[in-house]
Design brief:
By secondary structure, this protein is mainly alpha-helical. The chain has 5 helices and no strands. Helix 1 packs parallel to helix 2, helix 2 packs across helix 4 and helix 3 packs across helix 5.
Amino acid sequence: MPRVKRGTVRRAKRKKLLGLAKGYYANKSKLYRAAKESVDTALKYAFVGRRRKKRDFRRLWVVRINAAAREHGLTYGQLIHGLKNAGVTLDRKSLSELADSRFDRSQHEAAKKRSSF
């Protein structure tokens, strides 16, 4: 098997990784092995966090819509069911923005009429 000399490739790889670990505490930003473990863990959490963010925002939107719906005498499920039957195609993000400012009375009436509860 031929001998492999990795001089510049190794240096570039390590320099890149230590650059990613810049600002980490103590040896985690200076020593390659510790930095590699920390960067791997950080990238893993970043990957998971990007997916969690979507869930967290959807939960927040549902809470806001539910609060606005209950002010007008509906539950969240009744409101969504009624809006779907009424043919309103707004997503939860848009509905929560409406709920924050002020929910249209007409949307509540449409949802109440179409709701079979």
